[in-house]
């Protein structure tokens, strides 16, 4: 006969027998728990290794294999890859059409209304402005990074940009 402590209610509310030994009964012949199982291998294979050779029944032999989870890189690895990629490339990083729209908008604001409406731009002129703007920004961020390193930080902050611009002077290192 089962004791009161050995029977419990299951998930559906029906009584079930408790797993393991009944409460309060211990034996002195039990072996002590082992500290580690390192170095011991089981001769059986894992369930994943068994399933590796089988295909689901609805997959045909010519179908492409489904990709598993995407690779998870350590923090900073992708950033370093991007840095190397952009340092190798010579192409412009700002999109051309939004930059051209910005240039035209600034030119319309700076010029008188009668001149700005009929202003036309050569594509090489906008490309030259974009090259100069990106070179200026890259140089500014280099100086900003040096300011952050000088402050014993690796993260650039707004105060680093402000300091770099202040040190450069009114023309910002141009001329």
From TrEMBL:
Residues 1-74 are annotated as: Disordered. The keyword Nucleus applies. Core component of nucleosome. Nucleosomes wrap and compact DNA into chromatin, limiting DNA accessibility to the cellular machineries which require DNA as a template. Histones thereby play a central role in transcription regulation, DNA repair, DNA replication and chromosomal stability. DNA accessibility is regulated via a complex set of post-translational modifications of histones, also called histone code, and nucleosome remodeling. SUPFAM superfamilies: Histone-fold. Pfam families: Histone (PF00125). PROSITE patterns: HISTONE_H3_2 (PS00959). The keyword Kinase does not apply. The nucleosome is a histone octamer containing two molecules each of H2A, H2B, H3 and H4 assembled in one H3-H4 heterotetramer and two H2A-H2B heterodimers. The octamer wraps approximately 147 bp of DNA. It is found in: Chromosome, Centromere; Nucleus. Residues 75-167 form the Core Histone H2A/H2B/H3 domain. Residues 38-47 have a biased composition (Polar residues). One of its GO terms (cellular component) is nucleosome. This is Histone H3. Belongs to the histone H3 family. GO terms for molecular function: DNA binding; protein heterodimerization activity; structural constituent of chromatin. Keywords: Centromere, Chromosome, DNA-binding, Nucleosome core, Nucleus. InterPro entries: H2A/H2B/H3, Histone-fold, Histone_H3/CENP-A.
């Amino acid at each position: 006969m089962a004791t009161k402590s050995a029977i419990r209610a299951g998930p559906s509310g029906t009584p079930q027998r408790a797993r393991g030994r009944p409460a309060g009964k211990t034996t002195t012949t039990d072996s002590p728990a082992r500290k580690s199982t390192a170095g011991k291998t089981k001769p059986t294979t894992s369930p994943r290794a068994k399933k590796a050779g089988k295909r689901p029944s609805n997959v045909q032999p010519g179908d492409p294999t489904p990709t598993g989870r995407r690779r998870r890189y350590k923090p900073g690895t992708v950033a370093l890859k991007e840095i190397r990629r952009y340092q190798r490339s010579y192409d412009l990083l700002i999109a051309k059409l939004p930059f051209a729209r910005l240039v035209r908008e600034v030119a319309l604001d700076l010029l008188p209304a009668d001149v700005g409406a009929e202003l036309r731009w050569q594509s090489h002129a906008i490309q030259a402005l974009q090259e100069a703007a990106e070179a200026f920004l890259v140089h500014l961020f280099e100086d900003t990074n040096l300011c952050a390193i000088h402050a014993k930080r690796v993260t650039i902050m707004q105060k680093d940009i402000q300091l770099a611009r202040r040190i450069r002077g009114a023309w910002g290192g141009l001329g």
